[in-house]
Amino acid sequence: MRTDPRKLAISVSLGLSAVMLVGKLTAWLLTHSAAILADAAESVVHGAATGLAAYSLWYAARPADSGHPYGHGRIAYFSAGFEGVLVLAASLTVLYAAGRGLIYGTHLQRLELGLLLAGGLALVNLALGIALVRIGRRHNALILIANGKHVLSDVWTTVAAIVGVGLVALTGVSWLDPLAGLVIGGYIMFSGLTLIRRAYSGLMDRVDPELARRLIDGLNATVSSGLIADYHELRCRQVNDELWVDVHLLVPGEATMHDAHARVTRAEQALRALFPNDRLHITSHIEPTDHVRAHPGGHPGSTDPLKPE
After folding, report:
1. Domain assignment present for 168
2. In angstroms, rounded to a whole number, what is the distance separating the alpha carbons of residues 91 and 272?
3. What is the pLDDT of residues 208-242, one digit of tens each?
4. Cβ distance 239 to 73 under 8 Å?
5. H-helix or E-strand spanning residue 284
6. 225 to each of 37, 214, 220, 230, how far by Cα in Å?
7. What percent of the chain lies above the pLDDT cut of 70?
8. Which of 183, 178, 134 is nearest to 159 (CA)?
9. Does the pLDDT of residue 298 top 60, yes or no?
10. Beta bridge partner(s), residue 225
11. How distant is the alpha carbon of residue 257 from its chain centre?
12. Cα 157 to Cα 282: distance, rounded to the nearest angstrom
């Protein structure tokens, strides 16, 4: 049986999150660096978020049932939002610890060994984060993309910690270490807010402009080819790796039911070819062209938000 790359990726991420936490705590114990402690605190959050992401990936893959006719993919947005909240909480902890370091000072030690350990962990996380984002985009898995971006933000926090501690080692100016912690905290906060905004957009069914453009271009191509006469009432929503499309397709009024069905089927196949990695669900309503002519203003109360004027 072929292994699902999404499940394999999240399993590797979950295992490495534990390794990262142990490694960064060891680096902090060696150095007593505020910046490295801030980086380790972010890893605690990342471990919890990765565990939730693994559960969400499993739950989102469950098939639709009577209670969830549109499937279970929307949990991806809850997962990304919760991860964003955890990241935001970690940023506040990091900013607090760095602020205390600036006020009361720090006492650093064994910086070379701590820097070497932190640098090795950053390289591992860099490779993992890039892989997670690539696999997530290939399979339209928001959970993996969010987790991968979190891993990459972890890389930058580690780099900032290394720079701060390295500058202390070179210059002997100890306040550079908590200053690096403040920079790390600010970046973590930005990353958390970005995840929360992405989750909010998904829960509110905000349409991706690029996705809408591909749908409109595909439908316009079927009109230009003469396959259908026109279309309207186009709507879509994306739930994790599934895309749901509703559209009214117009065919010549003199067409037989068999011919109209064949035209619409071919139009739907043309749309599916534009989204090879999505699980595309199309609900189309067939209308004769003279039906629209009889209602030039459209149906009462109708809107067509995606189709351009």
Report:
1. yes
2. 42
3. 888 888 889 999 999 999 889 999 888 888 777 67
4. yes
5. strand 279-288
6. 62, 17, 9, 11
7. 91
8. 183
9. no
10. none
11. 42
12. 43
Q: How many other C-beta atoms can be found within 10 angstroms of the C-beta atom of residue 67?
A: 6
Q: Is residue 302 part of a domain?
A: no
Of 203, 234, 259, at which residue does a domain stop?
203
Residue 232 phi/psi, 5-degree rounding, is -160, -175
> Do 156 and 198 share a domain, yes or no?
yes
CATH number at residue 221: 3.30.70.1350
Q: Can you give the pTM of this predicted structure? A: 0.65
**Which of 147, 176, 203 is at the close of a domain?**
203
CATH code of 103's domain: 1.20.1510.10
Q: How far apart are CA 194 and CA 182, in angstroms?
A: 19
Same domain as 264, residue 138: no
298 and 232 in contact (C-beta within 8 Å)?
yes
DSSP state of 52: H
284-293 burial: b if 16+ Cβ within 10 Å, else e = bebbbbeebe
Question: Which residues constitute the domain of residue 215?
Answer: 209-293
DSSP string, 98-126: HHHHHHH------HHHHHHHHHHHHHHHH
Q: Looking at the 3D structure of the chain, how many domains does it have?
A: 2
> If DSSP codes are grouped into helix, strand and coil, which group holds residue 139?
coil
Closest CA to 149 of 161, 132, 162, 174: 132
Per DSSP bridges, beta strands 230-239 and 242-251 are antiparallel
Shortest CA distance to 83 belongs to which of 183, 242, 239, 191? 191
Quickly list H helices, 172-208.
176-203
The whole-angstrom separation of Cα 242 and Cα 282 is: 11
